[in-house]
């Protein structure tokens, strides 16, 4: 699902406390994503963006560093994409299985939470 970005944002964090500031940015963007979804729009946060260009374009404040770019917009029409992007958009996607990164007990030991799904089904209520 591609969106047409109607708004471009760059979030910044304070240079003096980068770890805490980055967590605050992440929390704020999570809340923003929930609100955007509730309003029928979508956001896409990006860490891999041109930081020097963002500093130039957005005239950043002293003492702050850009940490994420955010596109905010509405779902677009896939057929409006170039052929290359359309193929990428419509291609089947695969994800790592949960067993590859959800561990318990020790590193690389898959958690029963993800390995015994059939046994757990009766215990779960899904709304």
Describe this structure in words.
- By secondary structure, this protein is an alpha+beta fold.
- The protein has two domains: about 5-95, 3-Layer(aba) Sandwich (NADH Oxidase), CATH 3.40.109.10; about 95-125, no CATH class.
- The protein contains five helices and three strands.
- It has helices at about 20-40, 50-60, 85-90, 110-115, 115-120; strands at about 5-15, 40-45, 65-75.
- The longest helix has 21 residues, at about 20-40.
- It is extended, with a radius of gyration of 20 Å.
- The model has no long low-confidence stretch (mean pLDDT about 80).
Write a compact overview of the structure shown.
With 127 residues, this protein is α+β, with helices and mostly antiparallel strands.
Uncertain residue segments: none
Number of strands: 3
**Quick check: average pLDDT?**
80
Proportion of helical residues: 25-40%
CATH architecture label name of the largest domain: 3-Layer(aba) Sandwich
Q: How many structural domains can be distinguished in the coordinates?
A: 2
Name of the level-1 CATH class of the largest domain = Alpha Beta
| Helix-strand sequence | EHEHEHHH
Largest sheet: 3 strands, antiparallel
Number of helices: 5
How much of the sequence lies in strands comes to 15-25%
State the strand order across the main sheet. Answer: 1-3-2
Q: What is the CATH topology descriptor of the largest domain?
A: NADH Oxidase
Q: Which structural class best describes the helix and strand composition?
A: alpha+beta
């Amino acid at each position: 699902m591609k969106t047409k970005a109607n708004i471009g944002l760059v979030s910044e964090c304070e240079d003096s406390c980068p770890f805490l500031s980055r967590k605050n940015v992440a929390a704020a963007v999570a809340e923003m994503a929930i609100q955007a979804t509730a309003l029928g729009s979508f956001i896409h946060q990006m860490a891999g963006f041109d930081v020097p260009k963002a500093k130039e374009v957005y005239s950043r404040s002293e003492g702050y560093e850009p940490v994420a770019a955010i596109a905010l917009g509405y779902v677009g029409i896939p057929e409006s994409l170039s052929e290359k992007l359309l193929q990428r958009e419509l291609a089947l996607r695969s994800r790592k299985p949960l067993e590859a990164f959800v561990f318990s007990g020790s590193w690389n030991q898959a958690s029963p939470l993800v390995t015994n799904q059939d046994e757990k089904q009766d215990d779960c209520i899904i709304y």
